[in-house]
């Protein structure tokens, strides 16, 4: 595999946690009006220390703002990242369902694929969802 491919995979892994967290924070805010660290502890089934460390990185990177014992809020950049991640997730999951994958499997598989799908592949998936499968060459 070419070096460029490995670099993209490493970059995808680095952003995967941030995307999952901002998406979960956005969901919690939508559902309950607020997101607290305990919501993320329960959602991801991790420790408070893991959540605190991750939130610290997200704050450093400009995706969230929070103070000790206060709710976690998304910055404009965090909201954009959450929206982009949610859209990728929905396209991938819908595409898998269109291929005949069960709802449960499509939901689980899209969680991993959404972080690694290229813009080109995502655009092709979206075309299939909106226009149908391309004709086979004759």
TrEMBL record:
Homodimer. It is found in: Cytoplasm. It comes from the Bacteria. Signal peptide: none annotated. InterPro entries: DtxR_MntR_Metal-Reg, Fe_dep_repressor, Fe_dep_repressor_sf, HTH_DTXR, Iron_dep_repressor, WH-like_DNA-bd_sf, WH_DNA-bd_sf. Residues 14-75 form the HTH dtxR-type domain. Pfam families: Fe_dep_repr_C (PF02742), Fe_dep_repress (PF01325). In the presence of manganese, represses expression of mntH and mntS. Up-regulates expression of mntP. Belongs to the DtxR/MntR family. This is Transcriptional regulator MntR. The keyword Electron transport does not apply. Keywords: Activator, Cytoplasm, DNA-binding, Manganese, Repressor, Transcription, Transcription regulation.
